[in-house]
Structures are given as C-alpha cells and as structure tokens.
Known about the structure:
Helix content of chain B: over 70%
Order of helices and strands of chain B: HHHHHHHHHHHHEEH
Strand content of chain A: 25-35%
Radius of gyration of chain B: 27 Å
Mean pLDDT of chain B: 84
Helix content of chain A: 25-40%
Largest interface: A-B, 23 and 17 residues
Oligomer: heterodimer
Low-confidence stretches of chain B: 1-8, 293-299
Strand content of chain B: under 5%
Mean pLDDT of chain A: 87
Largest sheet of chain A: 6 strands, mixed
Number of helices of chain B: 13
Amino acid sequence: MAEVALRNVVKRFDNVEVVRNISLDIPDNEFVVLVGPSGCGKSTTLRMIAGLEEISAGDIYIGGEVVNDLPPKDRDIAMVFQNYALYPHMSVFENMSFGLKLRKFPKDEIKRRVDHAARILDITELLDRKPKALSGGQRQRVAMGRAIVRNPKVFLFDEPLSNLDAKLRVQMRTEIKRVHQMVKTTTVYVTHDQVEAMTLADRVVVMNGGVIEQIATPQDLYHHPKTRFVAGFIGSPAMNFMRCRLEQNGAGLRLRISDAVSLPVPAAQSERFQPLTGKELIFGLRPEHITEPRRNDRDANCEFDATLDVVEPMGMETMVYFTVDGQEICGRVDPGSAAGPGESMRLYADMDRMHLIDPQTGLVL
Amino acid sequence: MSTAALAARTTPRIGVRASLSRNRRWALYTSYFFLILFAIFFLIPPYYMVVTAFKSDAEVARMATNPWIIADGVTLDQFRILLTQTDFLIFFRNTIIVTVCTVAITMVVSVFAAFSLGRMKFWGSGVLATGIFLTYLVPDTLLFIPLFQIVKAIGLLNSYWGMVLIYPTLTVPFCTWIMIGYFQSIPKELDEAALIDGAGHLQMLTKIFIPVALPGIIAAMIFAFTVSWAAFVYPMAFLYSSDQQVLTVGTVTSLIRGDVYNWGMLMAGALMAAAPPLVIYAFLMDYYIAGLTAGATKG
C-alpha cells in the first residue's frame, strides 16, 4: 500500500518529447486510469512508474521514496500486460509463484498466497494447466493472479483488456473492479477505451500529446470538461462542436449558429458569458442533450427544425444526424418520435448543459 | 427465377470448382513425381553404402556380379575386421570426445552471445550480430593455413583437443545467428514481466529464455553436432597420428592404402559413422524443424 507521485516527469526518445513535464498525485488505494489516444504518452508514463523506461527528467515517488534509479524489482510493483506475458513453459501455479520463489518466500507461504489469489479470481481448478490450455479471459485472470500474490505496493495495468472480445472485456472489467474492492491497492490503469476509464476509475487522467489535459472523477470529467479535447474524447458518440457567435438579445444572450438557428443562453450563465459578447466561439453540446421536445417546462426558444441526413435506430434510442451550417451534428431521440432520413424534425437543445470553448486556447470557458 | 436462369447461373460455378480440383490434383501429381525422383536420387548413395558394407571382399572385387544386390549372402566380416583389426574404435572415441566438447562449448558461447546481442540492446549490438554471421561465410579451406600457425603455437598440433578449440569457429557464428532470431521472437513483455517479478539477467536467461527457446537451442545443437561430427578439412590438416585421428579422416586414411581401396570396410565404417547423427535426427526432428522455421520467419 502506497501513494504514487510524479513530479515534472519528462520522457524523451532521442529528441522527441513523448511525455512533457507531467505531475500527478495518486493517494493510497486509489484506482487511477490514464486514458488518451494512441501515442499520447500514457503507456510510457506507466512504464516509467514500473521502471521499464528511464525518465529523462523529474522525479517519481512510490510510498514517499524517490524511485527514479531503482530497478523494477525493487519498486515493489506488479504489472499486468496487454498480451498477458505468461511464461509459456510454466503451469499456472508456477507462473503465479515465480516472483515469490525468486524472492525466496517459504514454500507453504507461496502455496497459501497462490491459493488465496486463485480463490479470489476463481482459477483454482486451472493451477496445473499450462497457459496454452487457457482461454484469453483465463490467461488474463492468471496474469492478474501473478500480480495479486506479490501483494505489491502498486498495481500497474497496461491495456489489459484490449486483447479480449467485447463481451469478455465487459466481464473482466467488472472482475477488475471487484478485485480492487477486495484487494485494496493503489492501481494505475492505462487504456485508450474511455468507457473502461469511466467505469473503473476513482479518478481519470486524460492525456493528449504527452501532457495531462485533465484529472477528475468520471462524473466531473463528463459534466465539466476543462478542454475541448476532453469534451470530445469522453462520451460516445462524441460531443457536437459548432462554430457560433455570442450575440446580445435584449437582456439576455443568444448563440448564433447559422442564419436559421440561434439558441438562447440560459439566464444563469448569461452573466458569466457577458464579456464574450460578439466573439466567435465554439459551442459544445452532447448528443443526449439534443432530443425531441419532451419536457413540459421547456423553453420554446431552444427548439429548432432540422432535416435529418442519417437515422440510426439503436433500440432504446435513435441517433439522428443532420448538418447545421456545414457541420455534422448528432442528436439522441426517442425511437417513437424520430423522423425518417430526408425529413424535417423538430428538435430541442438542452441549453443548461451547453459548453462554450475558446477556439484559440481550446479551453472550456 | 426460372429453372433455366438458375441452371445458367450455377453451371459455370460447377465448372470452376471442377477445374480447381483438377488443378490441385495435377499440382499434387507433379509434387509427388519430383519428391519421389529426389528421394531416389538422394537414397542411392546410402543404399550403395549399406549393400556394400554387408558384402564379402571377394564379392566386392568381382566385376561380373550386379553391384546393387548382395549375391553371395550377407556377411558381417567387414564390421568384425573393422572393429578388431583397425583403429576404428579409437577414431570413434576421439570423434565423440571432440563432438561432445564442441557442442558444449558452442552452446554456452552462443546462448550467452545470442541473449546479449538479441535482447540486451547495447551500442553496436546490431553491427556485432551481423559481423558474427559474416565470419560464418568465410570457408574453412581459406582459414586452415593461418589456423595451422595458431594451433602449432598453442602446442595442440596433432591433438584432437586442437579440434575442440577450432570447431567452435565453425559452429558458434551460425548457432548464435539461429538463436538471436529465436530469442528475438520471444515477446518483450516476457522479460519485462520477469524483471518486475524480480529476476536478474542471468535468471531471466536460465529460467525464461532457455526453456522457452528450447526448440531453437536443440536446432542449434543438432547443427553444431553435425558440423563437428562431419568436419574433414581441419582434422585432415592438423591431425596425423592415428591415435588422435577422428572418424571422417581416420576411416579414409587407414582403409585406403596407396591405390588399394578396402571398399567393404570403408562402407561399413561410413555406415557406423553415419548412425549416430541419424539416430539423433530421428529423435529430434520435430524440434529441429520448429527451430528452423522460427529462425526463418524472424529476420
């Protein structure tokens, strides 16, 4: 059990900076997920914590101790790899006990720990098998078991579910969450899948281009993204972005999106956005906040007509796509009220959930 | 859709399928024809060797009989004389000593070399790996004169221990090359997992790499064994007394006196000399093929 801290950590490969001066504090027992697109530096960050990559500058602390120059085996961490990395010539028991044997644990203690971990992961009957006789999900469990038996200060997961099929991925996701609740240990988990990040994390660290864009709880990240990148990355389908101009409209403000469409800024937010009047901004609204007019207390000013280009029925809801001023917009409507492609439909924008983004800085205002 | 239209649509498909299977049949016929041709071609010399080894001297010398069959009945005389009246057993013993030592030295050197060159990336490791392979391309007929000077200087001329020293120059480069490919085909996460589990580099090699790369190691061992067992040029150049001689050269020099060839005994000797590699190949063939293909697919 230990807290992990990164202070101004930099990683350069030759002259390319892949991790740029990041700082991060992970308290004891917290489950932190690093998420971002390919090449954002999340895996490199994890590997630096593990000691598999040297850091170019900065400090990494595990349990209050600087571990910059410690080899992986002395950092008291355990890691689960994307391709499981099980030793193919060893049985499941030998795989799980390998680290303990190298550390010269007594035999009965090794057996006790392996049995305990096998019970947690429900792989007791697999202990004599070789990895090649296991399914993907079972291998991933063994890889987790190998981490658990060590009882390390920190668990590191490097995209552990990417090799599994969709159904098994959801199953294992729950499993990882359950194991973390049973074996309270500081965990750093890397994934490019934002659903995994949202469902697993106590806090999510969104990375892009080698920097941390935002650190927040899943709910906070979803409702209060700090940058356009985070707003667009978290949530599926992604948030709609539209160019707009903020205009004075009597006492209130309106967002002019096209000649035909302009939407009122809610009174609660008008004061905050007042200084930006007349500026070109980016208006962000999630698909689930563009619906058919359904609320009774709704503001009729927030309604507009759109000609649908594509209609995608999903069962419990229907995605509708249309363009406003050349920009493709997605809305999420009730299947019963959706119009067909090429037809016009009355839609409602829930402006209480609007985001305004500065196009120059990419920051959410 | 009318029946006629259906027929029009399905007929050409049947035609395509028929011609596909005919194509395949012809491909198989051709393959088997050439396979059988080559098998016969390569089996003629061993067959001749076996047949001659079990003939009497009188039959071998008689020009009138068919050389491809044993006309006068099978005899073990050639083997009896070879084992009791010549130095064949000494040659055999020397060859075993030289081969076992060569294989052992080769495996130790090339496993360590391949691990460090293939896995522990360091400055110049790529160039060094290629350099090692290039030395394999220099033929031994070019090297035996300078090597003669070296072996003489060490005082191992006319000693089979000199062969133990020299043969690895033939075997180490190729074995290292095979094993670099093999080690590189092992996923990198495996050594990272071992590093995190607390293994040092030596433990990683002995507990992970050697067991996982066992097929490659066995392939390399078979190669080293074959080279060492069948080497001819070096013992021919460096060994001249029969108590130090090995099978390949010893059989030839002791059984060919001037222009008198003891064909029966030569063939019996060749047969016995060929037996150990055959037995080893038969047992390890599966490993050998697995090892070769792994080396082949991985640059």
